[in-house]
Write a structure and sequence with these properties.
The structure is a homodimer of 668-residue chains.
Chain A: E1 8-9, E2 15-17, H1 20-41, H2 53-63, E3 78-80, E4 83-86, E5 101-102, H3 106-122, H4 126-141, H5 151-156, H6 170-188, H7 192-207, H8 224-235, H9 238-250, H10 257-264, H11 292-309, H12 312-328, H13 360-376, H14 380-396, E6 412-413, H15 415-420, H16 440-449, H17 452-455, E7 456-458, E8 462-465, E9 471-477, E10 480-488, E11 495-502, E12 506-513, E13 522-525, E14 529-533, E15 536-543, E16 548-552, E17 557-562, E18 572-577, E19 580-585, H18 586-589, E20 596-610, E21 613-625, E22 633-635, E23 641-650, E24 662-663, E25 666-667
Parallel strand pairs in A: 8-12
Antiparallel strand pairs in A: 1-7, 2-9, 3-4, 4-5, 6-24, 7-8, 9-10, 10-11, 11-16, 12-15, 13-16, 14-15, 17-18, 18-19, 18-25, 19-23, 19-24, 20-21, 21-23
Helix pairs in contact in A: 1-3, 1-16, 2-3, 2-4, 3-4, 3-6, 3-16, 6-7, 6-8, 8-9, 8-11, 9-11, 11-12, 11-13, 13-14
């Protein structure tokens, strides 16, 4: 690896987003999601399961001197399919000193504060900042003198802390707290939460590591790995990078820590090593396996550590795991996680549509992983997947009005099946207001508000544009500022104009991704040297104010079929245009979408509206099979059909017009 | 209903089966399955999970005077996906006084003794009868003075008996004991077990019923209903019919017994009413729902009681439930139960192939139900389904060598998916030697050995032939004996000749089913009056020795498609010939069966061998799509194909040639 070429995101202050498509989503997050989530964290949403998040911090703050022990009075948590959850025996009168909710509930605050930080960076808001400062005060009040800050154990007894790394999410909560703290410090310059995160990190650094006598465990739900890298990058403290590297190096080593830990906990269920990505040391992993969010969070941390330590074998593992996902386990919506059993990757090419898991958080984690791979070696195949995940599954996770959310993102839905088939219990045919286990909505919020961190990266010589998002981006080259003013109408139109602004001539390389979906792409920057490499066009030379780069990415409708190994999609086709994946909904096409057959002879693109939202629809010619009687089985014969025009809308916009069928893949 | 027309099976003594196809299966059961199962009941099968069945009877016999109570020493049973199971803490040293295995393990003996009885009726065997008598002695030794005979409670404490009717299978075990006892009495004339069953029945009759003070519960797993009818029919004791009727009438009434019972058991999980067919009183049931074995056992009991009591509303419910199955929930293999969640019926037209449950026992239960519907009103649609279930799913449940068994009968198998996809954990791609929860193997044994009870029924005027099985059947008409000698080569050839034997002229009606699969069927009996009604041809008149009936059922290969509401099978076809449903296996067609497409232009029938077993194969023309590169997604276009001849073998014979892919439905 050549360290000199590694790139890093631009700072928030150096990017402005004015993009028509994304501005709307970011404004929804700012005006709807962030305030709604603050109410949710404080259990003020009628009809929604309480979060108990801020309650727990306040309870911990009241109790953190008492250092209770887990005694007989403790009610063991209830295991649900989302993890352990503790509910008050009398919901009307919760104990102010008790911990409630999921064991990882602290992280809801952390993701929220991270989203708040990015939002403040994009859009200063004194009132929101005051609320955030107040919340940080409550959170920090719960921290123990030794730096520990996980309310479940502070409230229930520190004697059990660190005894169940596999299931109980302490290091996951620490990781999110740290990400939030770093973001808030970067956005506001305020370091109270950052100092708390450092003290919490120091608590772990003192207890975990290769040194004799230190714990050889690692996170059950990965997240601390990438967070410690962020903490290292903002503080420069090597010990945080070392701890991240320790967690990564240690993972999957013999003896397996989680099995040893399990044996110390009577009645513990058996460890599924692959679920936790510890079936082998991480450098030996070849196939993306297990819980898909955990997996991509780990891979993101691995990519970070390989970049910062120049670790080739770790980077090679990242490349293998990336390929395992992109070549064999990626939905055409940019989603990952074929099975709800363990919210996990299924086996290669097993990409069921109706029972897909494709968790919103996993698509977000895939964006994390992709950006980190881009930082090491810019290659459009990472950015293509990043864009595919963002424009499809990530934003499908949120309703067009920002008020409800998908956790699971199926590629085919039949409401009756979701309601009557217990095998599809995890699939919701309409978005939900809020979940008790609310990992996805705040994850969407922090993703959307930090979009600038994914659109651009830079190294000494080059400013990379990975995503075409209207707005501006600035970078100093040898102390001289160069600004790109990007005019883009993506995802609806592939013509992009970039105007250069510079007070004085700047020697620089500007690299622009050539999207994989653009056939016969053309690009031009007068008088500059032009090179194409790994899906990026590099324009180098001396830039002057007013220079212009034009990029034309033809945005044809593309009809796809899956590799024949994807049994689920044999004989089926799906449509994309630019970065957008399309789907058919019942509201446009009638019920029984499986009776439609695409012939693809006529395909047109139309401006359209979904739930008042301007979008583009595809009109595709095909036929609909007519019902042929009541018999359960009948002699095979050509079905009677009628010609139809099938309407397809962007996948992200589905389920905004009531309960109905949806399908991405149609019979071809 | 017109009672006079109700028909009943012939006695065992009046039917001989010499049929080439079935003789082989019956001999396997007699020579392989029954001895193997006796070893299994006695835990003498190496490498197989112990049954503990006879151990429990012996333990109960030792302890049945002690009347233990469930004390602190009792280890609570472990809940598995097959129910509660108790395992010894040290498998090498089981406690001779302890109950082990599934709570319903007693029923393994009962199904075995039932199969033994039928086998003895077909094929006397003094050695086997001696073993059976010895087993009956052990079982009867466990019976309490009050008649109670369920080893789980005898061993663990009678204070808890009848406290968990919903889950703990006492009435189920009673039902199977009774069926075994009736069969053994009918086969051998020995009534020791029958008397035990009567005493056990009396125990329940004293405790359950509409009278004040009696328990208003009913079986959690239905079975006692139809068994009590058998006990009534063999003893003539009205109280057994009354108890069966009570269980049926009471089921689903408000207040729901299982919910009341659940509230009396702290920590009991919530009752799924539909799982237990008690979402409504049975006369109001409209859709076949819940655990499919329980459902068809109940419906069989309902049909019996409606016949014996002339209860029209109950019969109407049976007809509705039959239609719900036959019109919306029946696999083309005669299997039922679309989902493993609750081993249950799924919603209408939800008939997944790979994740099918289609339990062998459920197909057997469907045969029970069909025969009982035929007894009320002969209609070939019942017999067609009975035949479809028997020739396909029921015998698919057993390997061609009789040594291994399927519990679940999928219509499509990809071994990698079964091994790597936890959603398919219930699907085994090869048959298993024995199951700890071994309901299916002994159920197959008792079904096959009692085939004569399904081939014929009779009433005063008419002898009905429902299944064409080579052999003979005799009946007295007005005291004069008439024998049919049936020459049939089904399922391979549809030409059937029936020779009449009679010492003196006999006035009689002989009815023969016209199979639904036979187009342009022809039939003839010289000089007899011929009527066709509800799929049966009736020949009436005076019969003389040497009279002959010829029936020609053309056995064309038929290519089927499913109703378009069956999403799983859209665009797919399946093949049958006569009663046999066919499937493609990897061993004949290569891997990736989903790449095959049938064109159906050429279809031929060939004699074939599978695992040394003579059978018929179909050769169907089609194409195989060629792999088109590594990309996960590629531009849609016509697939390159090569012409192939697809080989199909009977479904019942699949998985006898090693681990491989299988599919009933192929792309059309």
């Amino acid at each position: 690896m050549n360290n000199r070429l590694f790139s890093a995101p631009l700072s928030f202050a150096d990017v402005q987003i004015t993009d028509g498509f994304w501005q709307r989503v970011m404004e929804l997050v700012r005006t709807e999601v962030i305030p709604y989530q603050w109410d949710a964290l404080n259990d003020r949403i009628p009809d929604a399961e309480p979060s108990w998040c801020m309650h727990n911090f306040r309870a911990a703050a009241r109790l953190n001197e008492k250092q209770r022990t887990l005694g007989d009075a403790f009610v063991p948590p209830t295991y649900t399919n989302r993890g352990f959850q503790i509910l008050p025996q009398d919901p009307a009168h919760p104990d102010p000193d008790a911990f409630y909710g999921f064991l990882f509930q602290d992280s809801d605050f952390s993701k929220w504060i991270e989203a708040v930080a990015y939002s403040l960076a994009n859009h200063p808001d004194a009132e929101l900042e005051a609320i955030a400062d107040g919340a940080i005060d409550e959170v920090c009040a719960a921290q123990l003198d030794n730096g520990y800050l996980d309310t479940y154990y502070i409230i229930n007894g520190m004697d059990a802390a660190l005894t169940n790394l596999r299931d109980n999410h302490e290091l996951y909560c620490f990781g999110h707290l740290t990400e939030g703290a770093v973001a808030y410090y970067q956005a506001t310059g305020k370091d109270k939460l950052l100092r708390a995160a450092c003290r919490f990190a120091d608590y772990f650094a003192e207890r975990f590591g290769p040194e004799e006598g230190k714990c050889k465990g690692y996170p059950g739900h990965e997240e601390a790995e990438l967070a410690l890298v962020k903490l290292y990058e903002v503080t420069g403290e090597e010990r945080y990078l070392r701890l991240s590297r320790f967690f990564i190096d240690q993972r999957g080593q013999e003896p397996k820590y989680f099995i040893e830990e399990e044996h110390r906990r009577p009645g513990a269920r058996a460890t599924d090593l692959a679920y936790h990505q510890c079936e082998a040391p991480v450098r030996e992993l070849k196939e993306a396996l297990g819980h898909s969010v955990r997996a991509v969070y780990l891979y993101s941390g691995m990519a970070d550590v390989s970049r910062l330590t120049g670790d080739d074998s770790l980077y090679e593992a990242c490349r293998r795991l990336w390929n395992s996902i992109a070549d064999e386990k990626l939905y055409i919506t940019g989603g990952i996680g074929g099975t709800h059993m363990g919210e996990a990757f299924s086996f290669p090419y097993d990409l069921p549509n109706d029972s897909a898991y494709s968790e919103t958080c996993a698509a977000i984690g895939l964006v994390f992983f992709a950006r980190r791979m881009l930082q090491i070696a810019p290659d459009s195949r990472y950015a293509d997947v990043m864009e595919q995940a963002l424009y499809n599954t990530v934003i499908a996770g949120m309703a067009l009005d920002g008020k409800s959310f998908f956790y699971v993102n199926p590629l085919s839905v039949v409401p009756e099946a979701c309601q009557r088939d217990k095998r599809l219990e995890h699939v919701k045919p309409v978005r939900q207001k809020w979940f008790g286990c609310a990992c996805c909505p705040p994850n969407i919020a922090r993703m959307i508000t930090s979009l600038s961190q994914y659109a651009y990266t830079q190294n000494q010589e080059t400013l990379f544009t990975h995503l075409y998002i209207g707005g501006s981006a600035s970078k100093l080259f040898d102390g001289k500022k160069l600004t790109l003013n990007v005019d883009s109408r993506l995802p609806w139109d592939g013509h992009v104009t970039v105007a250069v602004r510079a007070d004085e001539p700047v020697q620089a390389a500007l690299a622009f991704r050539i999207p994989g979906w653009a056939e016969n792409a053309s690009f031009r920057a007068e008088g500059k040297q032009q090179t194409v490499k790994d899906g990026y066009v590099y324009f180098s030379g001396e830039w002057h104010d007013g220079d212009e780069i034009t990029l034309d990415f033809p945005m044809e409708v593309q009809m796809w079929q899956a590799n024949e190994k994807v049994r689920e999609n044999i004989g089926r086709v799906a449509f994309t245009r630019g970065p957008i994946t399309f789907c058919a909904e019942e509201v446009d096409n009638g019920a029984d979408l499986h009776l439609l057959r695409v012939d693809g002879k006529q395909i047109s693109v139309e401006e359209s509206h979904v739930f008042g939202h301007e979008t583009v629809a595809l009109k595709v010619s095909g036929v609909r099979e007519k019902p042929a009687g009541k018999a359960l089985y009948r002699k095979a014969g050509a079905a009677e059909t009628e010609p139809v025009t099938i309407t397809l809308i962007p996948y992200y916009a589905w389920a905004n017009r009531g309960l109905n069928e949806m399908s991405v893949w149609l019979r071809g």
